[in-house]
Sequence to fold (324 residues):
Amino acid sequence: MREAVIHFGLAGVLMLVAGCNSSGTSGAGDNAGTAKAAPSIPAAEQAPAPDTTGGFDGQKAYDHVRRQVEMGPRPPGSDAHRRVQQYIISTLKGYGCAVQEHAFTARTPNGPLGMKNIIATIPGQSDDILLLLTHYDTATWIPDFVGANDSGSSTGVMLEMARLLCTQKRPLSIWIAFLDGEEAIIEWTDKDSLYGSRELAAKLSLEGVLPRVKAALLADMVGYRDLRFKRDTNSTGWLVELMWGVAARLGYESVFVRETTAVDDDHMPFIRRGVAAVDVIQFDVDYPHWHTPQDTLDKISPRSLAITGHVFLESITELEKKFR
Fold:
């Protein structure tokens, strides 16, 4: 993702300090990572009982994050990247989800690169769709970057969402898309970023499915122990108001705050094609470990994951009332 003012400068600094992986698919990304004992979790950061968060289990989401981190860095084309794909697919199927695998070839600055979007499709009483989004790749050019928050946290949340939703018959159809290639291969530009979301938005448009997507809800970097979400001004205004209103009703006003930011992220290809979309993200100075090797499991809180999942679940219910 990119915040409009600082991303290029920060990416450039990190690339100078860390050194850019010229292939984008080898080096640290091919290492499985060294398994370590999970960090201790203070009582205040433990997941609340699922019956207080709409059934969403923050500890289960956290376990999914841990499993991803144990695989090590997961840039596209690496062995760990293929392992996380298989983990997502097998987990979704284990929850009874219908799974679509959309393989595609991305045109990157380093040449063609195979990527894959993974989609759990949950038929509803209507063919209209609520689209939930996360990405699962990690940045190629940061040594030892295991991406606990970026992208482990949102992927963990969406896998737990799938556990809850895949066995339900709801008013609207729900699709949960695990997107590949959100991160730049070399440096963030309109063409070197958001590979999976650009591919999915184009595919759904060509197939005539996009008009059925009533709203797209993106989670990205949602697990930090000091959780704080600003309102993204690039997101659709009414959808931001709906989600932040839900959060306030649930008692999470100190997490979903009134301050604003502007982020270029996986929601933008859908925004540009006329789909209402919102990005729930903790970014920039609010997450000081962004795009550093310190984005590790000890920064993640089961409680934060539970808060995020609770708001997403209740927002789905509100959107179903709006569109049924």
